[in-house]
Amino acid sequence: MNARNCKKCGKIFNYIAGPPICPACREKAEQKFQEVKEFVRANKSASMKEISENCNVEEHQVKQWVREERLVFASDSPIKLFCETCGAPIFTGRYCGKCKKDQANTFGAAGRQENTANPAPTGINNSARMYSKK
Hints:
By secondary structure, the chain is mostly helical. Helix content is 43%, strand content 7%. It has 2 domains: 1-78, no CATH class; 80-113, no CATH class. It has helices spanning 23-42, 48-55, 59-67, 97-117, and strands at residues 3-5, 12-14, 81-82, 89-90. The longest helix has 21 residues, at 97-117. It starts with a strand and ends in a 17-residue tail after the last helix.
């Protein structure tokens, strides 16, 4: 058992994965997210400050939900987000579609290079090995 103190309320809980917050605080955070999501949907022209004030949530929490791609702003929203790599305008996340694709291609190429650097031995069939009892 991996017991930790909740980062929000301080209670001890059985930590499994993710942010170190207890199930009760996690549920409160999810309810707050749903409230913010509905507010953004109903008020497409709201600024980050208006969202924060009307929903009683910190701006950094709203930004985190955007980076996690859980919250998406409309194209006509006054909130401007930009790709961290090229600076192109985006509506959610950290990177634009082109930069995400480029990163995926880079990681894929790195994996292919690693496989070709250490090729599997040829001529050995592991499933056909014979063993004898002594």
